[in-house]
Design a protein that fits this description.
It is globular and about 75 Å long. The chain has 312 residues and is α/β, with parallel strands linked by helices. The chain contains 13 helices and seven strands. The two termini are 13 Å apart. The chain folds into two domains: 96 residues, no CATH class; 148 residues, Nucleotidyltransferase, domain 5.
C-alpha cells in the first residue's frame, strides 16, 4: 500500500498564522502591561512581590519562544520597554530565575464546542545534560545522561494541550494518567493511549472520569471477569472480546485509535519549536520551563492550524 498523501486547504490563513507567531505583540501584550506590578500583599512576613506572576510569565514566554538566556531576556525586555516608551521596570534576571520555581502556569487551551473531548495521551523525554546523539551512536552513553519526562494530554479536535505533567525519567506513562485527567475541565468521552497504558489503574482512572478507554491490550491478555458475573463488565475485557471477534486492525478503526498519532504530532511540534533539552538545572524550574513552553504552543495553535484533506 502506498503512503496516503494530504493537501492543505487553508494554506493562506495558515501561512499568516505562522508569520504571526514571531509578532512580539502576541507575547508582550497590553494585558500583561496593565498587570505588570503586583497589587496584592502576600500576607506573610517580609516584602511583597514587586512584579506580578503575569509579568514573570510574560518574560518566561519571550525567553522560551525566542530561545534567549536569562540575561538576554532581561536585555531584550528592557529594549522593548524603551522602544514602546513604557514606564515599566524590568525584573532582574535573578528575580526571573527565582520566581520561576513556583510560578503558576495556565495552559489556556482552545476548547472545541462539538461535545465531549476525545483525549490522546503520551509522554516523551527531554534531556537535561549529557552527551549528544552523535557521541552516543559512536561511543555509547555514560551514566551522566539525565532526562525529564513530559506527559501530555491533547484534544483531537482543537490540537490543544489540555494537561501536562513533568516527572523524572523513572516514572512510567501509566502512573500519571489520573494527574492528567484531573487537570481537564470539561466532559471527556474517550481517552486513547498506546500499550504502555494497559494497566488496571489507568482503566480505573478513565472510568472514574466517565470516559471510554481505547487502549490495545497485550497479546497475551486474558479476560479477568467472565460473562456470568453479575458485576458491570470491565472495559478491558470488552476490548479483548471485540478484538477476538473482529481483529485488532478493525478494532482500531472502529474506535478511532489512529488519532493517537495527534499527540505524537504535538510532541514533534514541541521539540521542533523549543528543542529537545531543558535549560534549567533544578527540577522545579525545569517543570515550569516545560509548562511555559506548552502554554506557548497552545497560543500558537490558537492562531491557526492546517486544514488537511486526503488526496484520493
Amino acid at each position: 500500500m502506498s503512503k496516503r498523501r494530504y493537501r492543505i486547504r487553508n494554506w493562506r490563513d495558515y501561512n499568516k498564522a505562522l508569520i504571526h507567531r514571531g509578532d512580539i505583540d502576541l507575547w508582550f501584550d497590553s494585558r500583561s502591561i496593565k498587570r505588570w506590578y503586583c497589587t496584592q500583599k502576600s500576607g506573610r512576613r517580609g516584602r511583597s512581590y514587586l512584579y506580578s506572576s503575569m509579568a514573570i510569565q510574560c518574560m518566561s514566554l519571550v525567553k522560551a519562544v525566542f530561545h534567549l538566556p536569562l540575561r538576554g531576556t532581561q536585555g531584550f525586555m528592557m529594549s522593548m520597554s524603551r522602544w514602546l516608551k513604557l514606564p515599566l521596570q524590568v525584573p532582574y534576571y535573578s528575580t526571573l530565575s527565582r520566581r520561576q520555581k513556583k510560578l503558576p502556569v495556565k495552559l489556556s487551551p482552545r476548547f472545541s464546542r462539538n461535545g465531549p473531548l476525545h483525549i490522546v495521551v503520551d509522554g516523551t523525554g527531554l534531556k537535561v545534560y549529557g552527551e549528544g546523539e552523535w557521541k552516543v551512536r559512536q561511543h555509547g552513553y555514560s551514566k551522566r545522561r539525565t532526562w525529564r519526562k513530559l506527559h501530555l494530554a491533547v484534544d483531537t479536535r482543537s490540537h490543544s494541550i489540555m494537561a501536562s505533567v513533568v516527572t523524572t525519567s523513572d516514572v512510567q506513562d501509566n502512573e500519571v494518567t489520573d494527574d492528567l485527567l484531573d487537570q481537564i475541565k470539561g466532559d471527556i468521552a474517550q481517552v486513547t493511549g498506546d500499550g504502555m497504558y494497559d494497566k488496571w489503574p489507568c482503566y480505573k482512572s478513565i472510568e472514574g472520569h466517565k470516559a471510554i478507554a481505547v487502549i490495545p491490550p497485550q497479546k497475551n491478555a486474558k479476560i479477568k471477569q467472565h460473562g456470568n458475573n453479575k458485576a458491570p463488565p470491565l472495559m478491558r475485557d470488552q476490548a479483548i472480546r471485540e478484538i477476538r471477534r473482529v481483529g485488532l486492525k478493525n478494532w482500531k478503526v472502529a474506535h478511532a485509535y489512529h488519532q493517537r498519532s495527534l499527540v505524537e504530532t504535538a510532541i514533534f511540534r514541541f521539540k521542533k519549536l523549543f528543542g529537545t533539552y531543558v535549560s534549567a538545572r533544578l527540577f522545579g524550574h525545569q517543570a515550569t520551563e516545560l509548562f511555559i513552553k506548552c502554554c506557548a504552543l497552545n497560543r500558537m495553535t490558537k492562531l491557526g492550524m492546517p486544514d488537511s484533506v486526503a488526496i484520493v
